[in-house]
Batch of 3 targets.
Target 1
Amino acid sequence: MRKFGWILLNILMLGIPYLYAKHKAKQISNVSNTKLQVSTKFNFDINLLIDTLGGKENIISSSATMSTLKINLKSAQILTKESFSKFKINGFMKNNNQIILVFGDNAQAINDALILNACQDHTLEK
């Protein structure tokens, strides 16, 4: 009978905290993240990017997705992947006069800065 009491005591002392921790873990796992984490900082001067693209007069339009920056240019003949090495891009594609730069989660912030700086002379549509 003494052994049965010892087993019952262990079940109560260890089982109840285990069930409580399992219940709390289930509650935490059911919480969903509704906010999208996007970086708003980038570590280069936007004017340097504009100069690399051929200046404000060479840029027609730009748009951004979560991680890519798409820029339409008047002329993209001189642009190569090596010319963007100082910007730490993750990918580069060139198709006729459009280039696609993969920056990461700060592509939207770079696009906003590009539009703001290139729109000072009204060369780029918002």
Target 2
Amino acid sequence: MTSPCIDIHSHFFPKNAPNFAAKFGESSGPWVTLHDHSDGTGMMMLGDKPFRPVHSALWDAQARIKELDANHVETQIICATPVMFAYDAPAEQAAYVASAYNDLALAMCADSSGRLRTLAQVPLQDSALACRELTRAMRAGCVGVQIGNHVGPREMDDEGIVAFLQHCVEENAAVLVHPWDMLGGERLKRWMSAWTVAMPAETQFGIMAMILGGAFDRLPAELRICFAHGGGGFPYLLGRLENAWHRRDIVRGISLHPPSHYLNRFSVDSAVFDPRALRLLVDTMGADHIMVGSDAPFPLGEEHIGDLVRNQPGLTEVHRQQVLTENARNFFRL
């Protein structure tokens, strides 16, 4: 019998998203829209440019549930595609967008017989508005919040972002940090390198900012925060960072402890796609700090959700069940 799993990292986009360009003016945006091909497939558009080919599980709860059943997924947590964040829009616009998307995500979950749960999005460029929307969304039924790993030049140790994370603790809201707005420019336009190279780097930099920028030292241990894509390059390059922290004072920032001290302060998902990478992740983070994440239903997501963990050699059954279901239940209070 195949063990069920809880997938904590998947995405959605509503079929009938509001026309934000009409509301805010044609010079605003660009906004994300969906071109439905009426055959179960579609194209996400960013303004007038194709962004990503998609299929109906992205917006149709019943199509999603069929995929969950086929993959033995007990519960799946959905969240915005980062291009929906609107962090570069005026804060009041981003707050309106977040509220609209959160309500549409909750509506999709309401059509899933309890199989889908959702994370909120917030206008992170304005911490007061972000806190307000988080409170509203949690009251409405969200199980946590997804944020990007930076807002322009403001990193995870920024005072406004730290204040928002403190509010997450007060609201008992779990946090998923997803890379976005990737570094690299023109050099990374070939081979989807923004996704395969820059995304892991962004995630690593987000974790480093929390550590070296002193955010973990300023925030209570009750903060439940998870970084997507297995923590990006962080687990593999921890030794390099640790060595630098001990040997060069300019590396240490304002952190009170070396990087390895903070490994129990955050979790990661399992979206690493290779048993060797997952082995390293377990050895570095511990099985109690890893949850299944698929990145479904996008083309670069795990094709058979949870199978990397189900088939991982060397995992005890206790650790396997922690990663498949138990950690997620505890982390998201499911």
Target 3
Amino acid sequence: MPFSLQPEQHRSFLNLAGLRRVALACSLLAACAGALAQSFDEDFDDEAKPWQEVAVQLPPTPQDQNLAEFYLSPNATMKAYVDTASVSIGSDKVVRYTVVTRTEGGAVNVMYEGMRCETWEKKTYAFGHPDGKWSRSRRDKWQPIRDIGANRIDGALFRDYFCDGKMIADNENLKSIVGRLKSQTRIDPVRR
């Protein structure tokens, strides 16, 4: 005998089947919403990720036509220059540059360095030699920036050209930073 439902039974069967469909649809919606919420949270994850320094390539030897002098202090015993062709901003938010110093007695020092505005630190990667070659620094650890003394190279570059607070100056616009170095326009011209 074939299976058949009475009209009352038919309505309750349909309601039960409809209820099951609604429950299934709600479950699927909840699962999708949970997945979307997790993805949304991952996109805006404010948890600090460990900082990773990128691999560094040493720049070419500085050329005199690319050197931009910058102000140290009224009592400086040397002149300091940045090789504008070497200035770069890495994906790790490190400003890298070659600095050249010349003393009144004629001594010349060339250093390739990096500066982290966020942590107020600098690192010397290598020292330049008169023959144009580089030798890696044995003290290639991040050091606090010192903004004291007459020859305040790090402090001058940090405060006057590369960093604005804990951020890279000029919204990380390399062309703007290099332009200010060339024109000797400090971030805050009043501050010395």
